[in-house]
Design a protein that fits this description.
Blueprint lengths: L12 H14 L9 E2 L5 E6 L3 E6 L4 E5 L4 E5 L10 E7 L2 E6 L2 E6 L5 E5 L8 E6 L2 E6 L2 E6 L2 E5 L19 E9 L2 E9 L4 E10 L4 E6 L7 E8 L2 E7 L13 E5 L4 E4 L12 E6 L3 E6 L2 E6 L5 E10 L5 E4 L5 E4 L4 E4 L2 E5 L4 E8 L2 E15 L3 E5 L8 E5 L11 E2 L9 E2 L13 E6 L14 E12 L4 E7 L1
Parallel strand pairs: 31-35
Antiparallel strand pairs: 1-30, 2-3, 3-4, 4-5, 6-7, 7-8, 8-9, 10-11, 11-12, 12-13, 14-15, 15-16, 16-17, 18-19, 19-20, 20-21, 22-23, 23-24, 24-25, 25-30, 25-38, 26-29, 27-28, 30-31, 31-34, 31-37, 32-33, 33-36, 36-37
């Protein structure tokens, strides 16, 4: 929801810039080298119109929800959209403008069509303008500017915000204001410290437009969470918070913080409840019908009359064109630096336009999917926790792998070329099972089986149920998660 014509620039714009600039090299990792569920798509920008809901994500492009047909459309690299890196979404007249790192996309709300204008985005320090009577108040960095026509006056707080003086002087990198909102002739805003390692919100400030005075109210309740938006609810100001965002790696924040101007008190706002663990909140937009909340686990849609809550996440991807390769492991090539050779990972299948795949995880800019064909490999017995015999002694045995918790621990898989066997033997190791206890179905190796001309003593032949496809070779389906 846009309040008081506040510009939709987020104060964490710098984080987005860092995020986007690193995506081509690192992809979407959610905390280093681990794989994480695809439904944890991070929705950081939302805009509501009468017929559409626009949701900007981290690297999965733009999702548009048609409120008349209850359907989603995805605009991403896979269908010719600009590179990911949505910075802001705003409505101007009958058009919606989506600003990305390398261009602007204009959506015509009268016919639903869009056009792309490629241009480099010019970064600027976030500022917020509020109109009060004949005066315009602009909140920039550590001051507030009032202007009438060409006449301007700058107001600086006479004292430092609470807790700032407690920071050792060598680590004081300044403070800045963000996300202002007008309530009862006062401008309320979040104030944030620039520390040694990052920036974080520490409390709420106010500027009285009647006597041009500042007040600050500090609180540890933010717990290093950064304010991402705010709105008025009854007689309180609700600040939504997220933690520092780098490469989609969000540390948990408190969600919503309620500030009461009447007594300057803080508490966690629990009116909106969500399933599962606590969320990192990035944006909240509402109209008379619904409330939409962008989080690090997809987007939540809440009916304001019934309080019915629906969570949307990504579970499937659609092939946008013919001839898309599916690989046995992420990465199109593996480099042998000793011999200066580049060896391609084996292609396990080729998919065509409109084929649908079930997405399990993301890793380094790749999507792990359910394998479209049978893939087999040999798992080292030392990585097997236990072998479960099939009921009645018929069928495949069930092999349960040991828990893998660090990137250094890898499940070892022997391989042989596709030409040596009817089934493709996977050509790599697993960095991490898809679950702490990951079950594979397979049969123990018989003495007649060989790998590279040798009998694979101490190995189990298994069916590998997953494969890999590049994230840029898909469009995505945002669907309801039960």
């Amino acid at each position: 929801m846009k309040h008081n014509s506040i510009s939709k620039y987020k104060f964490y714009l710098l984080m987005i810039i860092l995020d986007v600039s690193l995506i081509p090299q690192t992809g979407f990792s959610w905390g280093g080298s681990h794989r994480y569920p695809i439904d944890r798509v991070l929705v950081r920008e939302i805009l509501l119109t009468e017929n559409y809901v626009f949701c900007g994500t981290n690297i999965f492009g733009l999702f548009v929800f048609d409120r008349r047909t209850e359907t989603w459309s995805n605009y991403c690299e896979g269908n010719g959209f600009l590179r990911d890196g949505i910075i802001k979404i705003e409505k101007k007249g009958q058009d919606v403008y989506v600003t990305l790192i390398d261009g602007i996309v204009r959506f015509d709300l009268t016919n639903g069509r869009h056009e792309v204008k490629k241009e480099s985005y010019k970064y600027s320090t976030p500022s917020y303008s509020l109109k009060i009577g004949n005066k315009t108040y602009t909140v920039v960095a550590d001051s507030i500017i009032s202007s009438v026509g060409d006449k301007k006056k700058v107001y600086h707080p006479p004292v430092l915000p609470p807790l700032y003086a407690q920071i050792p002087e060598e680590y004081r990198y300044g403070y800045f204001f963000s996300h202002p909102i007008i309530y009862e002739n006062k401008i309320y805003f979040a104030y944030n410290f620039r520390g040694e390692y990052d920036s974080s919100t520490r409390g709420v400030g106010s500027f009285d437009i009647n006597n041009n005075s500042f007040n600050f109210y500090g609180s540890e309740i933010f717990k290093r969470g950064d304010v991402t938006d705010c709105f008025i609810h009854n007689s309180s100001i609700i600040f939504s918070t997220a933690s520092f965002v780098y490469e989609g790696d969000t540390r948990r924040a408190v969600g919503f913080v309620e500030f009461s101007p009447a007594d300057s008190s803080f508490k966690i706002w629990n009116e909106l409840s969500f399933p599962g663990d606590s969320l990192a909140i990035f944006d909240l937009e509402q109209d008379s019908l619904e409330c939409w909340i962008g989080t690090d686990r997809g987007v939540f849609r809440i009916d304001r009359k019934t309080n019915n809550c629906i969570q949307y996440g990504i579970r499937k991807g659609v092939i946008p064109r013919n001839g898309i390769n599916v690989y046995s492991h992420y990465g199109r090539h593996r480099v042998n630096y000793a011999k200066n050779l580049i060896n391609p990972y084996p292609v396990v299948d080729e998919l065509n336009k409109c084929d649908t795949v079930e997405i399990l995880r993301t890793f380094m800019g790749w999507c792990e999917i359910k394998a479209p064909v049978k893939i087999t490999g040999f798992v080292w017995s030392a990585d097997v926790e236990k072998v479960i015999e099939p009921p009645g002694g018929k069928g495949y045995k069930k092999i349960v792998l040991k828990t893998v918790r660090t990137n250094k621990d890898k499940i070892k898989i022997k391989h042989r070329s596709k030409h040596e066997a009817a089934d493709l033997i996977v050509l790599d190791v697993w960095d991490k099972p898809r679950e702490d206890e990951y079950t594979i179905f397979g049969e123990s190796v018989s003495l007649s089986d060989t790998v590279g001309g040798k009998k694979p003593t101490g190995w189990y032949r298994t069916i590998i149920p997953t494969a890999w496809i590049h994230i840029g070779d898909l469009t995505f389906c945002l669907e309801e998660i039960e």
